[in-house]
Amino acid sequence: MLILQLLLLVLITQAGKPDCTPQGHRVLPEMEKDGDLIIGGVFSFHTGQDGYTDSFTKIFSFREFKFAHTMMFAIDEINRDTDILPGIKLGFKIYNDCGSTDILRAVMTLVNGLDQSGANCTKPPTVQAIIGHSGSTPTMSFAKIVGRFHIPVISHFATCACLSNRKEYPSFFRTIPSDYYQSRALAQLVRHFGWMWVGALSNKNDYGINGITTFINAANEEGVCIEYSEAFESTSPYHEIIRIVNIIRTSTSKVIMAFMSHREIRILVDELYRQNITGLQWIGSDAWITDDSLADINGYTLLIGSIGFTVRNAQIPGLDLFLQEVNPSQFPKSIFLKDFWEHVFDCSLNPSEIRKACNGSENLRDVQNSFTDLTDLRFSNNIYKAVYAVAHAINNLLSCDQNKSFNSNSSCLKLVEIKPWQVLNSLQSINFTTPGGENVFFDNNGDSPARYELINLQSVNKGKMKVETIGYYDASFPKGQRERDTYIITYNFWCACIEMVQVPVSKCSESCPPGTRKAVQKGKPVCCYDCILCPPGEISNSTDSINCLKCPIAQWSNTRGDACIPKEIEFFSYDEIMGILLALISLFGVFFTVVIMLIFYIYRNTPIVRANNSELSFLLLFSLTLCFLCSLTFIGRPTEWSCMLRHTAFGITFVLCISCVLGKTIVVLMAFRATLPGSNVMKWFGPLQQKLCVLIFALIQVLICAFWLILSPPFPYMNMDHYQEKIILECNLGSAIGFWTVLGYIGLLAVLCFVLAFLARKLPDNFNEAKFITFSMLIFCAVWITFIPAYVSSPGKFIVAVEIFAILVSSFGLLFCIFLPKCYVILLRPEMNTKNNVCVTHQSRSHSQSQVLGPPRLLGHISHFLKTVYIHILCEHIT
User: Fold this and answer.
1) If residue 337 lies in a helix (H) or strand (E), which one and from where to where?
2) How far, in Å, CA of 439 to CA of 315, rounded?
3) Is the pLDDT of residue 9 over 90?
4) What's a Pfam family this protein contains (predicted)?
5) pLDDT surpasses 50 at 861
6) Which residue in 124, 447, 575, 623 has the most C-beta neighbors within 10 A?
7) What is the pLDDT of residue 876?
8) By C-alpha distance, which of 697, 669, 654 is closest to 755?
9) Can you tell me the mean pLDDT for 110-137?
10) Residue in 675, 695, 657, 677 with CA at minimum distance from that of residue 877
11) Cα gap 546→516, rounded to integer Å
12) Structure confidence at residue 447 (pLDDT)
């Protein structure tokens, strides 16, 4: 850039002198045509370095040569058009140069306007605009300098986003979209196909570095990860190419974004083909994706299947005939046209050559090559539009209405008054439609609208790449509508000559299925991750989910972790083994109680039944039956009625049982009050009083339950606290005070009964219920004392099982301890079931014991006295 600035100063110094003499050798145009106004053009008809040798081999670029003739065709078409620039002839000066230095020298020649004769240059015939160059780097080198002179530069192929900087390049325009849009479109394309793990390659110049940097930034925004990013030039040493090839070989990504020119891609693909590295999906920039010169390389098959964006194709009517009429006689001084002719017809225009002679009478209609091929005029159309843009800008200046915005003091500009800076200003505001129907305009940065075709390289036929348009991209649309796939993409790169419609996969890690989330691997890009199962209660219902979502409180994750399902509602039911077992035990208790009731009814007139208050015995058996049956209400789905029934039925039936047992115990203890046999103490506690006592005790429990049900009754409750994955449907007590009052009242009666029975345990053995009541109450109290901690600590539905178990054990304890010994005597020892055995035996036993003991102590006398009284009362009761 320092050299360029010095050159600029020299030019400015020379411009201040009345006479100027060009320094060094004069640069002559390759092709030129005189006219009233001159448009300059800079192209490179030769390109490339063949291989890695030091010798520079010129390779014909038919595409660049076609660009130049498209420019000449557009100028010729405008000159023949009476609607635009009538009476004015446009001319051109086209330069063919390679390398930034030669290109800059050619451009400065156009800026100086020096003619071939070296005449006085006080008023140089400066060109009105410069068309070119195809490369971004050479365009940048001269566009900054030309901008100081306010001469428009319109490029058809320079796509570097940096050229949109109006401060650096104030006079630059282009008829091709900026790489800013292309790079972002390519990033969205990669994301569209799910290629989240790609490699990035570019050439080491402004075009490649700026383009690939924009692509990487846009890819990161789309969530795409770059495994590697490398840059090289066609002139890079061989070991640098080998290093990049080794990176490609060892990488895990199968998609490569190549932001480079056709020169670099030729060198790279040749080396990949030499080392047999295949199976890659190429994504190309517009600089090489449609270049037919790639069909000549050995590894062209590696590129089949490549996709990329390029400007839309177009048709230019009349261009085919114009190209077919090209002849060396048109521009006798053109060296390249002579070389081109000899190359196409494989002849020599110089008779001294060894090859066959030709004289220029040959016709291009008779041969087929990429120069005359018009199937792909994407970039030639950009040249066509650039020429028409300059023509319309000049035409607007010459129009009186349009001219007022540039020169308010005069009505119309004359042809000799037009200056390049005026053309520059006019270009900024043009808006016209080409003969082909395409709308042309520039934005504030000199850029054209970003409209692309998505193409696919599908085959090579006769040295030409066959491409198919598979989609469109328009940056002016909303983001969701920019990509419009209108064709099916054909992939045939995995296996030669086999077409496959399956999209290739390029990911650092496989997609995480639903039910998992992504966890980034330490020290690696975000696209490299592990799939972690969602914890219980959380789900991910999409692929590659970042987070797991918690299920609602009433739902839980399924086994796959990809959906929330209603939590399992669990309750103690008849469907499980424990429920069935406890129900059978309960029914067995009912059956056994009914059997004992039948035995007692059959032997109701026997002494052993009558001696133990048969009415209380039957009432006790009935209440025990209810106790066994009430345990069944605890099994099954809790409802509002079952919750109220189970606790109240349990409380009342158990109080009824204990009341009967307590009545039996009081009968025995009331006998202690009788000082002599025949005393009438028992008249105050006869059968009626016993029944009334049982009724009062039961009525108290009924009142407690009634208050409980009225104030805060039990109700069904979904317990979600014990288990996260399921709901325990249970009966909420409503009022804990009511429940513990019911249970406490039962416990109070049981303790009272136990104490009274314990005091009466030493009465005569035969038919004495006090011992059995004591033992049964001991079991009852032990069960319900241990029930409390078991009830509090039992999880979920097992709390119901604890209640049922306590009910059954205490019921069986009362049943077996009180009635089983009597059944044994009734059924197996009938000889003991007599009045004499009850009365006489006990009296004699009591008397003999008093003789054996001798003078007893005080307690012994009291016990002997009580036994005697009890026997007397018992015998009277039997009678």
Assistant:
1) helix 335-345
2) 14
3) no
4) ANF_receptor
5) no
6) 623
7) 46
8) 669
9) 70
10) 677
11) 9
12) 93
Tokens of 819: 């009635």
**Any residues with CB less than 8 A from the CB of 103 and at least 6 apart, and which?**
42, 44, 95, 97, 133, 138, 141, 142
**93, 29 Cβ separation under 8 angstroms:** yes
Q: What is the DSSP letter of 46?
A: E
Cβ–Cβ < 8 Å for 607, 835: yes
Does residue 630 or residue 780 have the better pLDDT? Answer: 630
Confidence of residue 39 (pLDDT cuts 50, 70, 90): very high
Burial of 489 (0-12, 13-18, 19+ CB in 10 A): middle
Q: 628 φ, ψ to 5°?
A: -65, -40
Determine the average pLDDT of the residues in 473-477. Answer: 80
332 φ, ψ (degrees, to nearest 5): -60, -25
pLDDT confidence band for 486 (50 / 70 / 90): very low
pLDDT in tens, 675-697: 445 555 555 666 677 778 888 88
Q: State the Cα–Cα distance between residues 665 and 669, nearest whole angstrom.
A: 6
**Among 263, 139, 285, 140, which residue's Cα sits nearest to residue 212?**
285
State residue 611's pLDDT score: 67
Angle subtended by helix axes 640-670 and 736-759, to nearest 10: 20
Backbone angles phi, psi at 467, to 5 degrees: -115, 155
CB < 8 Å & 24+ apart, contacts of 514-522: 514/539, 514/540, 514/541, 514/542, 514/543, 514/545, 514/560, 514/561, 514/562, 515/539, 515/540, 515/560, 515/561, 515/562, 516/540, 516/545, 516/561, 517/545, 517/546, 517/547, 517/548, 518/544, 518/545, 518/546
pLDDT at 368: 83
Residue 125: the pLDDT is 61
Chain Cα centroid distance, residue 731: 42
Q: What is the mean pLDDT of residues 314-331?
A: 92
Distance, in Å, from the CA atom of 477 to the CA atom of 473, rounded to the nearest integer, reads: 9
What one-character DSSP code corresponds to residue 108?
A: H
Hey, what amino acid is at 258? A
- Tell the residue number behind the tokens 């006090």, with chain if given: 770
CA–CA dist 383, 174 (Å, integer): 10
Long-range contacts of 550-558 (CB under 8 A, 24+ apart): 553/720, 554/718, 554/720, 554/727, 556/724, 556/725, 556/726
CA distance 131 to 391: 12
Region 719-733 average pLDDT:
83
Tokens 């349990």, located at residue = 650
**Site of tokens 């020298």:** 105
Query: How confident is residue 489, by pLDDT bands cut at 50, 70 and 90?
Result: very low
What's phi and psi for 174, nearest 5 deg? -155, 145
Q: Distances in Å between the alpha carbon of 356 and those of 129, 142, 179, 304, 345?
A: 42, 42, 46, 37, 9
SS (H, E, C) 163-174: HHCCCCCCCEEE
CB 71 within 8 A of CB 40: no
Which pLDDT score is estimated for 318? 92
User: In terms of C-beta density within 10 A (0-12 exposed, 13-18 middle, 19 or more buried), how is residue 222 classed?
Assistant: middle
Per the listing, tokens 């409980």 go with: 708
| Structure token pair of residue 409 | 């003091």
Strand partners, 202: 231, 259
> What's the mean per-residue pLDDT of the chain?
80
